[in-house]
């Protein structure tokens, strides 16, 4: 399923609110998202780590010792004040739009992520 324009606009608005109301949280979200991208971890797996669910399989191509560093960073994110606001954003979108959400966090333009079949 791909996010439509309305969903992306709402997510962008919610992320802007988080960045304004919880700047420390948003900085940590950006850090974890960027780190996961560098490791080439699927964004849906990252959403699972953040929300504590297990929908996506653990990446097989990443050494457990390296993956544990990402898990440590996610745990720091989870302890950041206001975390529940971001977790609710992910849960509200049922993880289906996780790639679009994380790309917006990394600075992608909304029009670049709407109905984009390439991202996952």
3D structure, described in words:
The chain has 120 residues and is mainly alpha-helical. It is 67% helix and 0% strand. The chain has seven helices and no strands. It has helices at 5-21, 23-39, 43-51, 64-78, 83-92, 98-105, 110-113. Helix 2 (23-39) runs antiparallel to helix 4 (64-78).
Topology:
Blueprint: H1 5-21, H2 23-39, H3 43-51, H4 64-78, H5 83-92, H6 98-105, H7 110-113
Could you give a short description of this structure?
By secondary structure, the chain is mainly α.
Uncertain residue ranges: none
H/E order of the elements?
A: HHHHHHH
Number of strands: 0
Q: Give a short account of the largest sheet.
A: none
Please work out how many helical segments DSSP would assign. Answer: 7
Helix content: 55-70%
Share of β-strand residues: under 5%
Rg, Cα atoms, Å: 13 Å
Secondary-structure-based class equals mainly alpha
Sum up the overall morphology in one term.
globular
Mean pLDDT across residues: 89
**Kindly, what is the distance between the CA atoms of the first and last residues, rounded to a whole number of angstroms?**
10 Å
């Amino acid at each position: 399923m791909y996010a439509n324009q309305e969903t992306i606009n709402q997510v962008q608005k919610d992320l802007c609110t988080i960045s304004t109301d919880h700047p420390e949280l948003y900085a940590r979200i950006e850090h974890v998202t960027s780190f996961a991208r560098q490791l080439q971890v699927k964004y849906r797996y990252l959403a699972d780590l953040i929300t504590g669910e297990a929908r996506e399989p653990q990446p097989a191509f990443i050494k457990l010792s390296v993956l544990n560093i990402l898990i440590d960073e996610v745990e720091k994110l989870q302890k950041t004040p206001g975390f529940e606001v971001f977790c609710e954003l992910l849960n509200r979108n049922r993880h289906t739009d996780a790639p679009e959400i994380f790309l917006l966090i990394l600075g992608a333009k909304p029009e670049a992520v709407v109905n984009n079949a390439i991202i996952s």
